[in-house]
């Protein structure tokens, strides 16, 4: 970790602050929306509006990153979310809250896409998996601790978490502005030390690489299973399917996060040493097997065990496929539409997954719903089987890390 450049340290620190702040408003937002006397569906719309705007604005963000650069778009995104979050605190009506929260989704996708671009550009190729692991771990730490702090802040009023999050985002933006070195417009060729102009990898170019297509599949599965169904359906399964108390619904998510954290801390380092696929494929297999069977758990103990195992599987493949994406795009490339599509894959899975699995659970029960979710992960596993190894034997595939292979099937 001591060999990571200063700019990457700044990015990792800002990531923790952002995730912590996002968790701060998680318990307050639905309660605040309900104070306007609207229905549960309307409250849910405030949550969904953020994700929908992230998804809709991702392609434009990819183009903006290409034209204006990663650092500038990252800072702009942080300021937009800070302003929209502060505006939420002073929303005078439901429709104002909906509008302000939706605007935050635009800023969110700006700093998310550009953060991934910065991670790829700043991380040394031989430490890319490790950097991705710490990046994911920082986000997880923030998401775990944020809701606890946010719940405590609600005691000071529902507006307080929004104000604190806005301030945290401004602090993160100032940290990046003052302490992150400018991202170079040229990359150094490792072979001869010459400077090469940064090029843009388009979505069409990246799709020629079967590793990139597999990355999209696994990120879609991650959004569906880990970011969507885990939040929407697992608590319901515990309370309605197994008849346990509401408290256990939160505890089981903590077990998932614990398994996730354990795996994340080792997955990146292992993938730098042994390659991406030897870590990624077992992670997908573990996540698929535990998810396929979760809905048929006979009791709470089995459900807790399977959820923990699913967290371990997700922790193995999530940072590893981020590193594989970095291998495909390379430090001498700007991701552009290819990078935007990566973020969209996860967001699309997070939107479709809960709706599809929820509909199946309503008609057929929790078992088939988790079976469907597990099959999505199985498809991602199948996509990775023929995919090339982007970091064979712990080494980068090409001196400039670029998408340079014409026929990869």
Structure description:
A hairpin with a 6-residue loop joins strand 1 and strand 2 (195-197). Helix 1 (6-25) packs parallel to helix 6, helix 5 packs across helix 13 and helix 12 packs antiparallel against helix 15 (366-384). The chain is built from 15 helices and 4 strands. The chain starts with 5 loop residues before the first helix and ends in a 25-residue tail after the last helix. It is an all-alpha fold and 409 residues long. It has a two-stranded antiparallel sheet with strand order 1-2. It has helices at 6-25, 28-34, 40-68, 70-89, 94-122, 128-153, 160-179, 203-206, 210-232, 234-241, 246-274, 277-294, 300-329, 337-364, 366-384, and strands at residues 186-188, 195-197, 199-200, 333-334. Residues 186-196 and 396-409 have low confidence and may be disordered. The chain folds into 2 domains: 6-181, Growth Hormone, Chain: A, CATH 1.20.1250.20; 199-394, Growth Hormone, Chain: A (Up-down Bundle), CATH 1.20.1250.20.
């Amino acid at each position: 970790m001591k060999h990571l450049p200063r700019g990457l340290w700044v990015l990792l620190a800002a990531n923790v602050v952002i995730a912590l702040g996002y968790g701060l408003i998680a318990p307050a937002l639905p309660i605040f929306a309900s104070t306007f006397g609207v229905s549960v569906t309307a409250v849910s719309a405030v949550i969904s509006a953020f994700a929908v705007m992230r998804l809709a604005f991702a392609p434009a963000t990819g183009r903006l990153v290409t034209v204006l650069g990663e650092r500038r778009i990252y800072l702009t995104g942080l300021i937009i979310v800070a302003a929209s979050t502060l505006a939420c605190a002073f929303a005078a009506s439901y429709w104002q809250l909906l509008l302000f929260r939706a605007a935050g989704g635009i800023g969110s996708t700006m700093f998310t896409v550009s953060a991934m671009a910065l991670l790829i550009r700043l991380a040394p190729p031989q430490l890319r998996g490790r950097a991705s692991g710490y990046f994911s771990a920082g986000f997880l730490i923030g998401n775990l601790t944020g809701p606890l702090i946010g719940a405590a802040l609600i005691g000071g009023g529902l507006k307080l978490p929004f104000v604190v999050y806005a301030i945290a985002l401004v602090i993160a933006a100032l940290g990046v502005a003052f302490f992150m070195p400018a991202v170079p417009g040229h990359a150094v060729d490792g072979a001869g030390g010459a400077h090469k102009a940064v090029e843009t990898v388009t979505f069409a170019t990246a799709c020629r690489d079967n590793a990139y297509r597999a990355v999209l599949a696994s990120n879609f599965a991650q959004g569906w299973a880990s970011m969507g169904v885990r939040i929407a359906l697992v608590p319901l399964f515990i309370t309605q399917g197994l008849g346990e108390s509401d408290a256990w619904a939160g505890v089981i998510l903590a077990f998932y996060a614990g398994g996730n954290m354990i795996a994340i801390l080792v997955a990146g380092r292992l993938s730098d040493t042994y390659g991406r696929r030897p870590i990624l494929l077992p992670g997908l297999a573990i996540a698929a097997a535990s998810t396929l069977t979760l809905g048929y758990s006979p009791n709470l103990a089995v459900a807790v065990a399977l959820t923990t195992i699913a967290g371990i599987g997700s922790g193995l493949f999530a940072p590893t496929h981020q590193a594989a994406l970095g291998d495909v795009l390379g430090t001498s490339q700007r991701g552009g539409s290819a990078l935007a599509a990566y973020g969209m894959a996860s967001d699309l899975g997070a939107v479709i997954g809960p709706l599809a699995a929820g509909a199946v659970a309503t008609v057929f029960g929790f078992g088939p719903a988790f079976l469907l979710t597990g099959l999505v992960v199985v498809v991602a596993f199948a996509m990775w089987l023929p995919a090339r190894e982007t970091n064979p034997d712990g080494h980068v595939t090409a001196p400039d890390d670029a998408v340079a292979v014409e026929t990869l099937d």
